[in-house]
Amino acid sequence: MNLTSILRLLAVLLSAASLAGCFDVSQKVVIDKGELSYSAEFRLDAKLAAMSDKKGGACDNFSQERNTSPAIKVETSESMADGNVVCKLSAQGPLNQFASFSPGDKENSLFKIAPVADGAWRIDSSFDMRDQAKANTGMEGMMEAMFAGRNLSWSATVPKVLETNGEVSKDGKTVTWSAPVASAYKAKQSFYLVFKAERPWYAFLLDLIDAIKKFFGSLFGGADKAAAPAAKPASNTAAPSAPAPAPAPEPAASAPAPAQTQTPAEAAPAAVETGPITASFDCAKASSAQEKMICSDRELARLDVELSAVYRKAREAAADAKALQNEQMQWLKASRKACSDKACLAEAYKSRTAELSR
User: Fold this and answer.
1) DSSP structure class, residue 162
2) Among 66, 129, 196, 238, which residue has the least CB neighbours within 10 Å?
3) Which of 114, 87, 94 lies closest to 102, judged by CA?
4) In this structure, are residues 123 and 160 in contact, taking their beta carbons and an 8 Å threshold?
5) Contact 159, 258 (CB under 8 A)
6) Rounded-to-integer distance, Cα 353 and Cα 358, Å
7) pLDDT digits over 289-327, tens only?
8) Could you tell me which of 295, 22, 322 has the C-alpha nearest to residue 147?
């Protein structure tokens, strides 16, 4: 049973007061030496699991992640513990192969990872049950009782944390985050982490291959360019040359002709960017007015990406990375959130970027 099916079933069972504490979702990621290990555990109340119509069991579809890389090894299991059916999903493989790995569904993207820039990667996870809340208005109290003690939780251990909305350990390598399941009925719950990845031991081989490709590309590319002009004289001698005309008499001295200038109408049009607007965060998950404004304006998106890069460099060089992170979170909650128009937001980003660049 996948997450969407479970949420639909929960809506039907809201009147069953005996069904307390329906499910937990916990996820864990460990990244070490270019390898990523991911595990997710989904605990489902056995009474609810018994109502599943899946022939393969309650966990039958838990492994239906969009995995297109054969380099990732995926395993699933189902067991019983403390009156719960426990579904487990684990995946392991090279970090750079996980861009196509995405367990969950459209409403609840449990795990997404993508490269950002300069060896940095970003993890995103979200859980949203607001549609179920709308379908069962007036039952908020009952839902809170049902999900009492149940949580969404994350743990990630990476080479170096750059930015996150979770709690960072003192060594700056482990992040934890949790939220009550019931809170997903009131607002979308999201976790994110930006981290610096270690280069794998074989990275120098990849660099060497790239260097060789560039060398031979420039060598043969340069030879082709040098050969091209040499062919021109041959084409000029193909036909007998006509006698050179006699030079025309020089005209009387007169005022120099004005230089020809291109009118605005004749000027070449400036290049216009037509690609999608890309910010430092996932615009598909933009929730605040400021984030939506950034995702709809190319200039603001560029300022956001620029600030994110400057912040990461400042955090790497900071003596107290945790203090800088808290300062950045305060800026997001106060200065950025106070803006309601483009001019204010652009000025806030430029000011913060300049401040971090000092």
Assistant:
1) E
2) 238
3) 114
4) no
5) no
6) 9
7) 899 999 999 999 999 999 999 999 888 888 888 888 988
8) 22
